[in-house]
Amino acid sequence: QVQLSESGGGLVQAGGSLRLSCAASGRTISVYNMAWFRQAPGKEREFVAGISWSGSRSYYADSVKGRFTISRDNAKNTVYLQMNSLKPEDTAVYYCATDSRARNDYLRARFDYWGQGTQVTVSS
Asked: What is the tens place of the pLDDT at every residue in 48-105?
C-alpha cells in the first residue's frame, strides 16, 4: 500500500514562491501517474497539476498555467510542485495523489491514493 506525505507548505506573501514535495513510500512511483490537487475553505477539491508516469507529459489547471510546474524525481520517489507568483486565491490545502494503475494512460488515471495535505497560505 502506497503512502504519500506532502511537505513544503507555509505562509508566503503574494508574488512569492513555494516548492511542495510529495514523498512516496510502500511502492515506487516511477510507473504511476501523479497529480496535485487543492481544496480551499468552503470549496470542493480541484485539480492543480498532473504528470504522466513517463514524465513526458504534464497537465495544469488554467488558473495555475505559467506559474506552477510539476516534476518528478523517481530516484527519490518524490513529486514536486514549484509554485511561483503566488496569489491569495492559491490559498488552500494541497494534496498529492497517485494513480492506482501502473503505466496507465494519464487520461484514464484514477487517483485513488492521497496524502494528508499541506497548508499553503498566501497573504495579500
From this structure: 999 999 999 999 999 999 999 999 999 999 999 999 999 999 999 999 999 999 999 9
b/e map of 23-61 (b: 16 or more CB within 10 Å)?
bbeeeebbebbbbbbbeeeeeeeebbbbbbbeeeebbbe
Cα three-residue angle 79-105-1, rounded to 5 degrees: 50
The C-alpha atoms of residue 108 and residue 124 are separated, in whole angstroms, by 38
- Taking each continuous run of H as one helix and of E as one strand, the counts in the chain are 0, 11
1 has pLDDT over 90? no
Tell me the C-alpha distance between 18 and 92, whole Å: 13
SS3 63: coil
Nearest C-alpha neighbor of 59 from the set 107, 4, 7: 107
What pLDDT does residue 78 have?
Answer: 98
